[in-house]
Design brief:
Blueprint lengths: L9 H20 L15 H11 L6 H15 L6 H17 L2 H26 L4 H82 L3 H30 L16 H10 L3 E6 L10 H21 L4 E8 L3 E9 L13 H12 L3 E9 L2 E11 L2 H7 L1
Parallel strand pairs: 1-2
Antiparallel strand pairs: 2-3, 3-5, 4-5
Length: 396
């Protein structure tokens, strides 16, 4: 099977060409790194050419280049030597640490360090002269020094890569948080817009249908009065919401969130629109004040339930009941269920979705649907809104 060698990178080709040119120049000038070797003359060109060829693989096959370079350097010791060969070997050692596997990057510095110590001790024992330390020093410069330099460069690159990855992950998480925040804000605005305006538009649709279908001037006049009142109130709500959305400087004061104290006015308005509504508020005035999110959710659930009753309920009484328990506020709205005798407004189901979302955001439970009771079939909306006792105490 033929050995497949990867295509060398441009920087490797440039290093190999420059090193080979330098070595040939030294050889032409007769400058050698050693003397009195078994193979003199131009035998030093052979290791030089091998090392130049291995430089082409310094990035793509660093371990193969290191093994071949070590053998070539050993062979170079039996020739007159070339300084360019030594320099190319140091670059191959450096590249093996920088571009090699993590295991090789850990193993090469240790190995070259042990070789440096072994050469120093061996030549000291052989020569019995302090000058033998110089041989160990040269060995360390040729092998251990480039290996440790490669470790420093590799660690720096890995740290930079890790920092880049962390920055990308942080940017991705920030973008995800931004998208979630935008989605949550859009959902909140959709709920508020639906709850504030749907009631008025439903009343307008129903009474305009009645005015068009009944040939009674008195009834038409009353319907037109209700239509005008709801259109003015709906337009005011829309302008207030649009003003808040368009204000980028924060100069506008935010609209006060509705509270359960406004249920009386809400029920009165529903009666004006034609609903037979009764309010059974079992909360005691002396009881602890509910958290603002709970009051807002309860108010909006009652408001949307009355809107749905106005659009879809059969003739009969609509009942709104609130009960405050130690750890929760329960809201129940029942309305006659069946085929309405009068005009009705179209529905999209967004109201039920909004009520469920408001309840789930507070960790509560929401149920809606038809059921039977002694008075007949009714549509029941039931929500349990948890109340944190700590929040109650903080608001007292």
């Amino acid at each position: 099977m033929a050995l497949s060698l990867p295509r060398p990178q441009r920087v490797d080709v440039q290093i190999a060409a420059a090193s080979l040119l330098c070595g040939l120049t030294l050889e032409a000038l007769g400058l050698h790194s050693q003397a009195y070797r078994p193979f003199g003359g131009h035998w030093s060109l052979l290791p030089l050419l091998v090392l130049a060829g291995l430089e082409l693989l310094r990035s793509s096959r660093p371990q193969f280049a290191l093994v071949g370079g070590t053998l070539a350097l050993v062979a170079d010791q039996f020739t007159s030597g070339n300084l360019a060969s030594i320099l190319m070997f140091t670059d191959i050692v450096y590249a093996a640490v920088v571009y090699g596997t993590p295991a090789a990057a850990r193993r090469i510095p240790v190995t070259t360090g042990l070789v440096t110590v072994a050469v120093t001790v061996g030549f000291l024992a052989w020569f019995q002269e302090a000058e033998a330390i110089l041989i160990g020093f040269v060995t360390g410069v040729v092998s251990f020094a480039p290996a440790t330099t490669g470790v420093l460069v590799r660690n720096h690159r890995e740290a930079a890569e890790a920092a880049k990855l962390r920055a990308e992950q942080t940017a991705l998480l920030a973008e995800m948080d931004r998208a979630q925040a935008v989605g949550a804000e859009r959902a909140r605005m959709a709920r508020e817009l639906h709850d504030m305006v749907a009631n008025h538009l439903s009343a307008i649709a129903i009474h305009s249908t009645a005015a068009l279908s009944l040939d009674d001037p008195g009834t038409s006049k009353d319907a037109l009065a209700v239509i005008r009142e709801n259109s003015v109130e709906g337009l005011a709500e829309m302008r207030r919401l649009i003003g808040i959305l368009r204000d980028h400087t924060g100069d506008l004061e935010p609209a006060a969130a509705p509270t359960l104290d406004g249920l009386g006015a809400l029920v009165t308005n529903a009666r004006t629109n034609g609903l037979d509504v009764t309010l059974d508020d079992a909360r005691t005035p002396e009881g602890p004040k509910l958290p603002t999110p709970v009051e807002l959710a309860a108010y909006r659930i009652v408001q949307e339930s009355l809107t749905n009753a106005l659009k879809h309920a059969s003739p009969g009484r609509v009942t709104v009941a609130l009960v405050q328990e130690p750890r929760a506020l329960t809201v129940r709205v029942t309305s006659p269920y069946g085929d309405p005798s009068g005009p009705r407004a179209p529905g999209s189901g967004a109201g039920l979705v909004g009520m469920r979302e408001r309840t789930e955001l507070l960790g509560g439970t929401f149920e809606s649907g038809p059921e039977s009771n002694p008075d007949g079939k009714v549509w029941n909306v039931f929500a349990t809104l948890p109340v944190d006792p700590a929040d109650e105490g903080a608001k007292e």
